[in-house]
């Protein structure tokens, strides 16, 4: 069981954070997708958006798209933590490195993230489309599986992958891994903060990070990564939106800049950080405390968050 400690910790961290933060994610998606089209609901602020959704659909309206978000987050975080450490250990054993640890960590994160997207990208497409079923329109997708089937049938299977994996070029399409930079930057910063902290305390690298330190380092690393890569999140959301029609990524970039300027690439940034901050803090704290840790005698046991709730 111990060899799956990163998988278990990441899985439970992803589930916990998603349940707690999904309404914030829904608001972020709606703000990022709003290109000024008058057919969309126009919200004056986040509170007005929340009230508008609750009045029509009740509190459950804030949890549209929860099912794919739960699946995607649990699988993504679990596999990311697990395979990141597997690949990292292989690189250490084989002495594979370009000579700069921060760059090594970013590249490891990108490779890990790109592989995981093969499994999770259709889930994120479904989540975005379910979140963008507005109160003033007929329901197009009845649920997660219905959304996947409908998109695959009407738009082709490639529609479930076009956003993350395909960028338009003269010859058609080539693989793209822009989105993996976000997680790579975040994980690299978090690991750097964590390693430096443990060194200052004279503790071994595999020691469980103190909860307060985990809160601070996970939050700071996420804010930095989110702010740097947020334009990509806006572009991803708009390409996945079934209301908008763009011929490709460059068409979207040009139209967004012409109609909204640079501000258009940062719509929803505040809610993005507000959503990401508690999300990643819960995920990392859960991950650090749910995964098994070696005791002095060499046995393995699970720490839970309950010890910090006293």
TrEMBL record:
GO terms for cellular component: membrane. Its main location: membrane. InterPro entries: MCP, MCP_dom_sf, MCP_transmembrane, SLC25A32-like. Solcar repeats lie at residues 1-90, 100-196, 209-293. Pfam families: Mito_carr (PF00153). It is a multi-pass membrane protein. GO terms for molecular function: nucleotide transmembrane transporter activity. It comes from the Eukaryota. It is found in: Membrane. Keywords: Membrane, Repeat, Transmembrane, Transmembrane helix, Transport. Transmembrane segments: none annotated. SUPFAM superfamilies: Mitochondrial carrier. Belongs to the mitochondrial carrier (TC 2.A.29) family. This is Mitochondrial carrier protein.
